[in-house]
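Subject — a protein and its fold
Fields — amino acid sequence, structure tokens
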Amino acid sequence: MKNFLSIAAALLSIATTTLSAQDKAKPVHLFILSGQSNMAGLKPEIGFLPEAKKLLPEGEVVHMKVARGGQPIRLWVKEWNEIAAKHDIKVTVDKTPYYDQILAQFKTLQAKYPQGFASISFSWMQGERDAKEKLSAPYKEAMKTLIANLRRDLKAPKMNIVIGRLSDYGDGKAPEWEAVRDILVAVATEDKHGAWVDTDDLNNKTKKEKLHNDLHYTKEGYKLFGERLAQQSVKLINGEKPSATGK
């Protein structure tokens, strides 16, 4: 009986060790969500995470979110002052709090997952503030610099990027808004690891019995936004061609 118990215990130990090894071998996919209010309004657990986990059943999905309403891209880009000067823009910054937060959270996750990440995907929804401040001219270089900085500092040269295009809130009547819309798509499509997400159908709200395009998305809109971010990201992770329509 004693021998039987010893053998059972040994087998259990082997099984536990095997399961532990399997867990460690499970690919970990990191998603970084960042931007201003329409990213801040996204609840990852509704839409984004369920979709990402569904599409990556063999892996572990991990995310971080650094987003706050009304913030300009310059608070993410350390080189902003030099970029702005090229366009004779006097708006300057002396700190990049949101970029620094991304690096800090990444360092914490690195310690938690010493085996590293099978993929890193960066989702960006921002630009409303810059359009309203009429700062579209330096936006493309700032966006490309942000992406390059993240790939360098995270040591992830193949980091995927999924960019949300500004919605149709401007109704085509605001040149700066339209310029930033176009820039966001251009940055995504010009990057071999990039994709974009359409948000034009996410912000419709009924007000006084008339349909209008609000600055922010509806509850269902945020859910759909998260699903689209996940879908485009996973296509890039799997080496597939992302949707050209952003949906």
In short: Residues 14-22 have pLDDT under 50 and may be disordered.
